[in-house]
Amino acid sequence: MDFKSKGPSMDQPSNEIFWSFIAQIFVKEIDFQGIEILLEKKDKPVFYIGQHGAALGWLALALANRVFWSHQQIERPPGIIFHPLVYQMPLLKNLAFRFSSGHKITNFFQLIKLIERGKILEVGSCPESSNCNFLYDEPVAPFKFKEWIHLAMKIDKDIVLVVHSGTEQWQKTWKWPFSLGSLRGVHIPFMTKKIERLRLKMIPYEPPFAGAEFKQFTKKEQESIVDEECEKIRAIMINEWKILDAA
């Protein structure tokens, strides 16, 4: 099942008009695939593990999420862990608060408390983190921020993987005339135009262990399991991105 948005219109509810208007500043067209996965979980907390894409790719993903749920007229309070520097930048600071339901979330402890108190239902992170600024052999960079997947497995919430195509328009790529292992160059953030078409695909992910079972392992065993799952998740993302991009 797909969902498409091409901007605000007068027949939309006020919340959707707001998010569609903001999104239209950055993205011309949004195309969701696999929305039935999200609708099945509309009453549950969901952890999104997203492909970072461009350094500013998170902005496009967060906007697409808000446009989708406002269109469904379903209130799903979001919460995203942002780097503290984001809250020092005027425009991004205001958007960060909006994307986190008015909360300033910069670490896991704040996030967990808000989830436990039922203050947020939509939670997301991009485990590629700053590795997204480098050009690798594959379209999804190695995971630098594995703690997020560790947390998602530990507290036993639904996990949805997200891959997307389009945010590469917000960067310039400098390919090196040489290689450093799997590194091939760098991506430089360069947002000078709208994304013509942002395509996203949702993929459900089932951890190998339930939360209670996962907690029974030692810390070292948990880290080993998380490392293995990170490789599996990255492989899934790479494959799904190639399918999405070729469509």
How does this structure look, described?
With about 250 residues, the chain is an alpha/beta fold. The chain has one domain (about 1-30, about 45-75, about 120-245). Helices cover about 40% and strands about 25% of the residues. It has helices at about 15-25, 35-40, 55-70, 90-100, 110-115, 145-155, 210-215, 220-245; strands spanning about 1-5, 30-35, 45-50, 80, 120-125, 135, 160-165, 170-180, 185-190, 200-205. The strands form two sheets. Strands 1-2-10-7-3-5-4 form a seven-stranded mixed beta sheet, with helices on both faces. Strand 8 and strand 9 form a beta hairpin. Helix 1 (about 15-25) runs antiparallel to helix 3 (about 55-70).
Kindly list the characteristics that best describe this protein.
alpha/beta, 8 helices, 10 strands, seven-stranded mixed beta sheet, 247 residues
Mass-distribution shape: globular
What is the C-alpha radius of gyration, as a whole number of Å? 18 Å
Query: Which percent band covers the strand fraction?
Result: 15-25%
Low-confidence stretches: none
How many domain modules?
Answer: 1
State the separation between the terminal residues, measured CA to CA: 15 Å
Assign the structural class, choosing from mainly alpha, mainly beta, alpha/beta, alpha+beta, or little secondary structure: alpha/beta
| Major beta sheet, strand line-up | 1-2-10-7-3-5-4
Q: Multimeric state of these chains?
A: single chain
- The DSSP helix count reads 8
How many DSSP-defined strands? 10
In N-to-C order, the SSE pattern is: EHEHEHEHHEEHEEEEHH
Portion of residues in helices?
25-40%
Q: What does the main sheet amount to?
A: 7 strands, mixed
The residue-averaged pLDDT reads 87
